[in-house]
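Minutes, project huddle
Topic: does the predicted pose make sense with nicotinamide-adenine-dinucleotide bound?
PN asked that the exact inputs be recorded in the minutes so nobody has to dig through chat later. Recorded below.
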Amino acid sequence: MLNLPGIYIEGAWHHGAQPLTVINPSTGQSLAEVAGGDGDAVACAATAAQAAFAGWSRTTGAHRGELLHRIARGVEARRERLIELQSRNNGKPLAESAMDVDDVVATFEYYAGLAQALDRQQDQPLALPSEDFSARLRREPCGVVGLIVPWNFPMVTTAWKLAPALAAGCCVVLKPSEVTPLAELELARIIADCGLPDGVFNLVCGTGLAVGAPLTSDPRIAKVSFTGSNAVGVQVMQRAAETVKGVSLELGGKSSLLVLESAELELALELACAGGFFNAGQMCSATSRVLVADSLYDAFVDGVKARAAAIRVGDPFAGDSDMGPLVNQAQYQRVLGHIERGMHSGARLLCGGKPLEHAAGYFIEPTVFAEVPLDSALWREEIFGPVLCVRRVASEAEAVALANDSEFGLVASVVGADPAAAERVADQLQAGLVWINAPQVIFPQAAWGGYKQSSLGRELGPWGLAAFQEVKHVVRAV
Ligand code: NAD
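Predicted holo structure (tokens), as shared on screen:
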């Protein structure tokens, strides 16, 4: 079995003392052992990053942009390898892993452009209501940052944090998910070849307790950008409070797809299945609640049942697989537990609801429940698996009210052929991103993040860059 170093500090790879066994979720077999780190490794990484910050923070945006372009080109050059590692370790079909790699390239390219634009924007004068003073505005990197990412879109989540952090001039300590470090390690090797000064980019693989917790506490870390579960996000915020660190959080969701009266049925079915079953439903943005206008409900239920049952679940490397396994045994059992409780909640199972027969890995059939009670865990909690809940709604107002009745507010989808109605509904939804008649397209230029307990702050776009910057005003008496 492969034995990989799991620590990269100051330009050198190291084997840490905390072994992580990485598995292939399609088979349940071990793929590699990664020698991860602990609090000592975090301390070394933070020291190296702090030492590198003095020089890196003073480089021009143009220079940092050139290095980000280089990373994007390096990722493109190793595209096939990254796709393979992502599918092997995470279980996504190859086509989904390819989308992830393309997203990583687009994100590095976009922030390369923003870094280059920074030089022009620096030292802008600020109009003051007094002629006795002049003022200029600077945007400076906030310091050494800790980036903590989950396993569902590992490289993508990393790119959304790493590219703007480097563009801003921050030095970084990255902690990949202990479940999916393989593509992240390859990404780190690509970055290591791109000529960043030693200590600017550091990585420590390990568990949340061994690495994530000390990273969150370390006084040298100015900011933590975290994506993961709400339970851990709250712990990160609490720990970060001790040293008054900045925190960005991207957490869970329980999002809705609203099928309006005017919706074209086939489009609604296609978007409902994509929103529920892409990445085996392991998406913070899964639109796992589907609210269907009364007039379309019966046809929708028949259609979604047929479409979900036709989804080909299987080996991510087989060209004809639409959906792979769940990421590991813990997630598989968690989702099966949700389904089991759902069966006793009063909801009606339309299809699926069980593991895929004769499969060694963590495969679950696409599952659809109808008439899901509003107070059930199925309706209220994030399931993070291939489970859709469908409900009939009597009016647009009821659909909006049910969609907004959640502690989360990440995204929403609206399907309807009447543009005025679709836009009106979108405006009323408490969600950071609303798609109308569109799949879940994400552009680095547009913000990512949600309302309520889904997020604190925004990633992507200029907001993603601002999250790693401090604002400084220099005011001078003239
Ligand atoms: P998780 O919270 O278990 O772990 C996320 C990361 O935090 C991992 O790297 C983990 O090792 C680390 N961690 C665990 N305990 C820690 C601690 N005490 N201190 C610091 N770090 C710690 O989440 P997961 O199971 O990997 O991912 C699934 C969750 O992520 C879901 O809830 C999903 O909604 C959320 N998610 C949100 C977004 C978004 O953009 N809003 C995107 C992807 C995933």
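Observations noted during the meeting:
- The chain has 15 helices and 23 strands.
- The CA atoms of residues 47 and 220 lie 8 Å apart.
No decisions taken; revisit at the next huddle.
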